[in-house]
Amino acid sequence: MRRIRGMAEARPAEPSPASAIGAEDARSEAESAAPLRPQGPYDVSEVPTDAGPSRLDLGSLLITGRPEVEIRIELDQQRQAVMAVTLVHGRGSAQLQVFAAPRSRATWPEVAEALRSQITEAGGQVSTDAGPFGDELSTIVRTPDGGTQPARLVGINGPRWLVRVTFLGAAAPVGGSPTLEQMVRDLIVVRGSQPLAPGEQVPFRAPAALTADV
Known about the structure:
alpha+beta
């Protein structure tokens, strides 16, 4: 597990050649494929190339760091692959994942229904609530030490991608961690041109600063 305060590696957010379609086409597809995201997260095609802060580059995600937030990266050193990314602020955290999605429709409603079924079949309780990112699932999850903590499951669709966020602990209630919620809104997604089936995870990439000493 590697821990980063604020930033580790930066690059400006710029359109990737991955979007073989132009920026205007990407915006058009975003509007038809999913609800607009005026407050983020953003697709890389939606972000000006000549403005904005430097960001931690994890391949599929560009994260704007904050000094008070720890970015935990679980790195498989043998494969040089990032397995998980978690933002930690105080007693709350937010786990991040990016999945491929079709251009034609938003997939979070069906993903949420599948998660709901899994939780209830396992004997857990889950509720659907309207939150700042749309319909969200609230539940209780187990911790590594055998305890439990509240969790809020969020899905945000963009052009050919779905960002899934699990807010945990103090960040689980809506508004429990404005800092982490804002960091999620500030995310920039780089879906890439690689062929991925809907629901397949878009891989992260380990920053060079974390792999140089391995």
